[in-house]
Q: What sequence folds into this?
């Protein structure tokens, strides 16, 4: 298993990075096919009131160049860490969502002197059968250029049953079009990495305070994946967002924000 050694040297950063706010640093790790605004947009302004937010975009997202080779988890984790160091922060908490949870876990095991705490939302150590099937479908559709179908699958996977039951056909069509327009060029590469991620052996090595957030209405990353994350990380705290979808709506995100702020208040301030 790679990635279990510590304090690796950092590469020259090449990712497009959003930096916002001031105070202790929070390094953001977004999901596959997502981005900093897409995953964290509802809480960026609030968190930036008293934290420096550092949000690197994975290759092929935001302004980051598309990868020329398959993404590697170790390299991606190192790039995120170096983005924070390049922004002037020697240590920081990490907030990971979906694929970003695996990136954050790997960053913490490779750079234990820098990562001081973890908040892992809708996360997984290895793709469960539902996520593995969805990732394969997305890759197949993307390679065929069927981006409208990728968008439909994303809506089906990332909305909760309650949201799907309430949305009108016209609103759903509009949402699919909006999702398709926002698909980043690197989405296929991101989901290829989702298919290969395995940080199960990393979990027991973690020594930092960890909060695991499980949206119980998640149809893409089943809640059991979050439960297994929490069970595998020594001392991890688990909270559930009842009925929450893979992409949190405004109400669930505000609940997430409250729990995240409470958790971060118990973590010693990161150095700047």
A:
């Amino acid at each position: 298993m790679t990635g279990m050694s510590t304090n690796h040297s950092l590469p020259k950063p090449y990712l497009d990075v959003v930096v916002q706010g001031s105070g202790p640093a929070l390094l953001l790790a977004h999901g596959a096919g997502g981005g900093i605004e897409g995953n964290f947009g509802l809480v960026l302004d609030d968190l930036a009131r008293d934290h420096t937010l550092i949000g690197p975009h994975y290759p092929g997202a935001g302004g980051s160049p598309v990868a020329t080779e398959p993404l590697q988890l170790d390299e991606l984790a190192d790039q995120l860490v170096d983005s924070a160091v390049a922004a002037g922060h020697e240590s920081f908490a990490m907030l990971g969502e979906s694929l970003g949870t695996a990136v954050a876990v790997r960053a913490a095991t490779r750079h234990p002197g820098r990562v001081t705490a973890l908040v892992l939302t809708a996360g997984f150590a290895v793709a469960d059968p539902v996520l593995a099937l969805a990732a394969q479908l997305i890759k197949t559709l993307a390679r065929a250029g069927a981006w409208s179908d990728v968008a439909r699958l994303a809506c089906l996977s990332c909305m909760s049953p309650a949201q799907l039951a309430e949305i009108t056909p016209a609103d759903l069509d509009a949402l699919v079009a909006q999702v398709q327009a926002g698909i980043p060029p690197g989405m296929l590469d991101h989901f290829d990495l989702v298919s290969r991620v395995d940080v199960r052996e990393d979990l027991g090595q973690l020594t930092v305070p960890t909060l695991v957030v499980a949206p119980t209405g998640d149809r893409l990353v089943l809640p059991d994946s979050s439960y297994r994350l929490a069970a595998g990380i020594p001392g991890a705290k688990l909270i559930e967002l009842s009925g929450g979808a893979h992409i949190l709506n405004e109400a669930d995100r505000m609940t997430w924000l409250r729990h995240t702020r409470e958790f971060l208040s118990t973590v010693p301030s990161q150095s700047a």
Summary: The chain is about 45% helix and 15% strand. The first helix runs from residue 36 to 40.
